[in-house]
């Protein structure tokens, strides 16, 4: 529930980026409610880091699946990928 007592519907956006193929990250999955829950569940099952940013999800939610991230969102999305990089690096240290 949000501050006004209304139930907030869960949303999720999955991003993918292969710099050898694409100039920018792409939306590879998105959804609300049960679909969002499934995206999050799959990410957790595959040890994919999850970052919560309601404002960024709202902006990315306007894009279609397989659509590249527009330049005006590069900075925000770069922060997400930096978070993933740090999380992966820290997880690698713990496994050693």
TrEMBL record:
<keyword id="KW-0966">Cell projection</keyword>
<protein>
    <submittedName>
        <fullName>Flagellar biosynthesis protein</fullName>
    </submittedName>
</protein>
<dbReference type="GO" id="GO:0009306">
    <property type="term" value="P:protein secretion"/>
</dbReference>
<dbReference type="Pfam" id="PF01312">
    <property type="entry name" value="Bac_export_2"/>
</dbReference>
<dbReference type="InterPro" id="IPR006135">
    <property type="entry name" value="T3SS_substrate_exporter"/>
</dbReference>
<keyword id="KW-0969">Cilium</keyword>
<keyword id="KW-0282">Flagellum</keyword>
<dbReference type="GO" id="GO:0005886">
    <property type="term" value="C:plasma membrane"/>
</dbReference>
<dbReference type="InterPro" id="IPR029025">
    <property type="entry name" value="T3SS_substrate_exporter_C"/>
</dbReference>
């Amino acid at each position: 529930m949000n501050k006004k007592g209304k139930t907030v519907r869960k949303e999720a956006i999955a991003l993918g980026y292969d710099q050898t193929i694409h100039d920018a990250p792409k939306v590879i999955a998105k959804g609300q409610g049960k679909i969002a829950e499934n995206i999050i569940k799959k990410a957790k099952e595959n040890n994919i880091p999850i970052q919560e940013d309601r404002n960024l999800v709202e902006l990315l939610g306007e894009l279609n699946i397989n659509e590249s991230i527009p330049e005006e969102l590069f900075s925000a999305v770069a922060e997400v990928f930096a978070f993933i990089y740090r999380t992966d690096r820290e997880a690698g240290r713990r496994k050693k």
